[in-house]
Amino acid sequence: MSLNTKDEGAGVAPQNKGSWSSFLKSIASFNGDLSSMTAPPFILGTTSLTEFSAYWTEHPSVFVAPTSEPDPAKRSLLVLKWFLSTLKQQYSSRSDKYGTEKKPLNPFLGELYLGRWEDAAGETRLVSEQLEGYNAQKASFSRTIHIKQVGHALLTIPKYDESYLITIPALHIEGLIYGKPFVELNNCTYISSSSGYVSKIDYSGKGWLSGKKNSFSATMYPAGKEKDIIYSVEGQWTDGFLPKTDLIVPPLDQQDLYETKKAWSLVAQAIAKGDMDTTSIEKSKIENAQRELRKKEQAEGREWERAFFTRQAGADKVFETLAKPIAERIEAEKTGGVWRFDEGKARNAKPPYHAHQSNGPAAACGAFRGTNGGTMDGATG
Fold first, then answer.
1. What is the pLDDT of residues 91-104, one digit of tens each?
2. How far, in Å, are 34, 177, 218, 252 from residue 145 at the CA level?
3. Per DSSP, what are the bridge partners of residue 124?
4. How would you write 201-256 as a 3-class SS string?
5. Which of 7, 34, 47, 380 is positioned for an S-S bond with 137, CB 3.0–4.6 A?
């Protein structure tokens, strides 16, 4: 295909075309950790990756529906329905809001996003914590950015002593040449349940001659019997038909300094105003302070204390059991270990959540001062 040069950068404002062109040149040979990619400020969104956890549960009634289904096959189908309902919010909600995909803010170690949903299902709580100083995503570029997300999610339903291993889709970002990027999902993902059922979701996009954008085809079958399909469903994951429930978070003046909206407030305000100079300055304050803090911790031989999660020691038996039917493996070396929600920590957690660094994520190193029936953990960093 030949690129029509008159359309290059059609989605970029004239004042930003210089930095946009430089950005394209910088990623032309990029192949590495996505967190190390520096994007021009005008491409940045006001949302940190720590907030993306909320996309999994913006339909709380759908999320908790499996807890009320006694039949294990139907329960697995409800988990598949819930997962499919999350894809639009996870991967296209920024495009819907801004008309183009935005690069999220890179979260810092210890960043928190806390809130709750209230609907007919009751109260559903969100606890999202950045567990490493980076997110494990590998990227390469060839007209599109190809991204391999590293990690998995584990959904637990205590009522049935049941667990579900959920793999994370690879994706690519198209439309960069035209300045209007959007996400397309690649290959396939799995949901493997301890009740003996597996769901496989295949993703495809619009080809040169046929196909539809953001398409998927999903099947559910007994583990090890992929041809014995019990349920199947197909469509476009961007066809959102469920109204989302708004997350309730405390106002900024009541948030901890490590809560994401509070921590990134000056950056978000500058982005919203189109003030790219202030955006860069305020963003660099946090990033530079965090780099210095990691160096200080390393020199002193200590590790950052997580507020809500604990690193697994030894083998994860639940993961190993659920991973076997789908040939999945843990890449703990890329995520700083495997992390699980710690109910004991959660019961005792209260602001300030990081009292040893209570002046906030942009503080200099010298600032040290010695409900519902389902839960979900993430093993990504």
1. 887 656 666 777 88
2. 10, 11, 25, 35
3. 117
4. EEEECCCCCCCCCCEEEEEEEECCCCCCCCEEEEEECCCCCCCCCCCECCCHHHCC
5. 34
